[in-house]
Amino acid sequence: MSALLAPLRSVWKAYTSKRLREYGLRSDDVLNVYDRHVEAALVLMSKEGQDMRNRRLKRASDLRLKKEHLPKEMRDYDPFANAELHRLVAFTQYQDVVRASWAPSSAVKAKK
Q1: CA-to-CA distance for 39 and 92, rounded, in angstroms?
Q2: For the residues of 27-42, what is the DSSP string, one character each?
Q3: CA atoms within 13 A on the CB side of 87
Q4: Are 11 and 22 a contacting pair, CB within 8 Å?
Q5: 22 three-class SS
Q6: Measured CA angle at 43 (ends 36, 48), to 5 deg
Q7: DSSP assignment, residue 104?
């Protein structure tokens, strides 16, 4: 199954990279901030990382409003590199799994 999806995955990544570069965004910037794991990861993110993310989002919003794109000389970067927020989201998801495994639900069932 994954062999069938590999070409689609590469096409999707190329398209997404192009669209993110047009506005100067990274893949971290377009995560759903209302997801509880992303929200927790944003709290764990460094202050500098949060400031840089907010600047990128404001610049992208401004470019989108003006119906412009980032100049081509500023688009030379990999939007999927240095995905700090993705790592922090994975860490918060891992913490939830660990907490769930230590939950006292089995002790409550034993008492009944």
Answers
A1: 10
A2: GGGGS-TTSHHHHHHH
A3: 8
A4: no
A5: helix
A6: 140
A7: T
For 1-112, list the strands marked E by DSSP.
none
Looking at the predicted structure, is the pLDDT value of residue 88 above 70? Answer: yes
- In this predicted structure, the answer to whether residue 5 has a pLDDT above a threshold of 90 is no
Q: Are 43 and 90 in contact (CB under 8 A)?
A: no
Contacts of 28 by beta carbon, 8 Å cutoff, 6+ apart: 53, 83, 84, 85, 86
- This model's pTM is above 0.90: no
First to last CA, the chain: 45
The letter for the amino acid at 89 is V
Q: How far apart are CA 56 and CA 31, in angstroms?
A: 13
CA angle 35, 1, 79 (to 5 degrees): 45
